[in-house]
Amino acid sequence: MTQHRNLPTYLSIEEAATVMSVSTKTIRRRISDGTIPAYHCGNRPIRIKLDDLEAALERIPAVNW
After folding, report:
1. Quick one: 36 exposed, middle or buried, by C-beta within 10 A (0-12, 13-18, 19+)?
2. Where in the numbering of this chain does the Helix-turn-helix domain appear (predicted)?
């Protein structure tokens, strides 16, 4: 019996921007300021874990108008 572990999903900067509905420039700024962790191995392109991308979201508190 083979056990499969849940592997993280990695996205390119372009894919992350599409998922978040923002520009690639915004994703790069968030990587630069440390809000979104990013990874690369050697000369490979930058990748972002989907879990890290989701964790970077901040909930806006409800306001009673």
Report:
1. buried
2. 10-59
Asked whether 53 and 11 are in contact (CB, 8 A), the reply is yes
φ, ψ at 7 (rounded to 5°) = -90, 145
pLDDT digit string, tens, across residues 29-60: 999 999 999 998 888 899 999 999 999 888 78
Amino acid of residue 23: S
What is the reported pTM? 0.77
CB within 8 A of 13, min separation 6: which ones? 24, 27, 28, 31, 45, 46, 48
Phi then psi for residue 51, to 5 deg, are -60, -40
CA distances from 10 to 1, 16, 31, 59 (A): 27, 9, 14, 23
